[in-house]
Structures are given as C-alpha cells and as structure tokens.
Amino acid sequence: MNKLILLTGPSGSGLSSAKYVFEETGFYIVENPPKTVINDLLKSFEGLSDRIHNFCLIVNIAEARLCLDIIKKNKNFKCKTILLMANKQELLKRYALTRHAHTRSVMEKISLEEAIDLDIKDANELYPDVDATLDTSSLSVKLLRRFVEEFLSYGKSNRGMNVNFVSFGLKNGTPLGLDMVLDVRSIPNPYWVDELKELTGYDQKVIDYMNQFPQTKTLLNRITTFLSSQLSEVQAGGRATYNIGIACSGGQHRSTYVAKYLADYFADSYHTHAIHRDTANLNERD
C-alpha cells in the first residue's frame, strides 16, 4: 500500500530541515497545498503509484486538521502524521535570527507574536491525533534529521519504536508533545553541593553522589519495571514514537542523569534517545 506522511507544525519548528530527509529517502513531496485540492492531489498520487509508493505532504498548521480529516477518508494510503513543535520563545528567537516574514502574520495582518500563538494553539489541538510529535526547541538540525530518519525506518530493524527520554526542569515549564512525565525529584539534588552545582547528570561525580542514596536505586528500579511493561503495550498498539518527560527542578542534574540512564537501559529493545531541553549542550554528546 502507498505510504503518505503528513508533516506539519508551527512555522519555524523545523519543517524545512525535516523535508530534506524525505527528499533523500525517495519521497514524492508536495508543500503547502490548499485544502481544497487535497482530494485531487491524492488521486494524482494514485496515478503515480506504479512508480512511486512514498508520498509526503507538508502542510501549514492552520490547515492541518482539515487536511488530515480528508486524507483519513482515503483508504488507498497508509497515512502517518508527524507534528513538529517548539516553544514560543524559541520560535521568536528563530524568526529574529532569520528575519523571515511569518506567512500567517502577513496574510492575517497580525503581529509575529500573535501568529506564533495561533500556530501553537492549532498544534496543541492537533496533537492528540498525530502519530509522532517532536519538540525541536533544543535540537540541532543534525538531531532533528536523525529522529525523522528513524521514524521513517520504523519496522525495518529488529529494534522497535523510537523512545525519547526528554529531561527538563519544572521551573521552566513542561516541554510540548510528551506522552508521559516522570518526576525524579525524590533523588537528592546535587545542586546544593557546592562542588557539584555547576556540573550535570553526565559527570561522574554527580552520578556517584546520587547513587549513594538508596532512594535513587529504588526509584530507578520502579521506573524501569513500570516502563518495561508500558513500552511493550504502547508498541503493540502500533506507535512508532513515544516521548517520556523526565522532570526535576532545574533540568541540569537529576533529570539528565535519569534520561540518559533510561535511554541506555532500553537501548537493546527500542531506538532510544536522551534529549535535554534545559541543558542542550548535552544533546551533542550522545
């Protein structure tokens, strides 16, 4: 059966970077088609199906819901939806750096901030109905492309779905697009130890400090036991990607350590990644 990927997200969330992965893996790509031509476009794809079997529609988040509803009615395509997201501050920063005009801002004659707010609102409303969500706020282009590549390769290897363990600090808000959040604040906080304060959960001194406490090992054992069952059930339900938030106070010590620990623990069964929203420099170390 023909494969159809619907790729969407707020403007500035990384759609252009993700698009290159589809180009390099042989997808036939159409960008920003108006919703009024979707049915005709699908018929044209069917006419190409003797030569091409993989198609990608990159659609404006404002029209993504209507496009998805139309596509779901067509039984000739196996459709999956990827939603890229980013927080408001990051989107504003990206627009400040590129100085591009936001399409919605121009067409609806509203400010950039208002346009971004509307994009995020539409993305949040679409979120429950997508197959994969990725918060790109702290990701390099290299990592974004790797995650998209692994989503597209799902089912082609012995390992299962993509599982992202996303560390973050609760003081900075909760990341977008999480399927679950685990709170690891019961682990004693290295932040209050002067020699550990500036380090991260990747530093051995911090790891040794946390592991001297019985509650650290108890919590890790409980989490791995629970996730061993939970992830198996989620994968059996057909999910290609699952995002698990790992929360502590600041997103520097405890959550980064636990996210990395869990990514390593489940690496033999799934495509795992530790993503660090609030300590983004660690993302390039894995």
Give structural attributes:
about 290 residues, five-stranded parallel sheet, four-stranded parallel sheet, single chain, about 40% helix, alpha/beta
Question: What would a concise description of this structure say?
Answer:
By secondary structure, the chain is of the alpha/beta class. It has helices spanning 15-24, 38-47, 61-72, 88-98, 103-108, 112-126, 141-152, 204-211, 214-236, 254-265, and strands spanning 2-9, 28-31, 54-60, 77-85, 132-135, 162-169, 180-183, 241-248, 271-276. Helix 1 (15-24) crosses helix 7 and helix 3 packs parallel to helix 6.
- Strands ordered across the widest β-sheet: 2-3-1-4-5
Low-confidence stretches: none
Distance between the termini: 36 Å
| SSE-based structural type | alpha/beta
The SSE order reads EHEHEHEHHHEHEEHHEHE
Mean pLDDT: 92
Count of strand segments: 9
Residue fraction in strands: 15-25%
- In one word, what is the shape? globular
Count of helical regions: 10
Helix proportion range: 40-55%
How is the main sheet built? 5 strands, parallel
Report the C-alpha radius of gyration, rounded: 20 Å
Describe the structure in your own words.
The chain is of the alpha/beta class and 286 residues long. The chain is 42% helix and 20% strand. Helix 1 (15-24) packs across helix 7 (141-152) and helix 3 runs parallel beside helix 6. The longest helix has 23 residues, at 214-236. The model has no long low-confidence stretch (mean pLDDT 92).
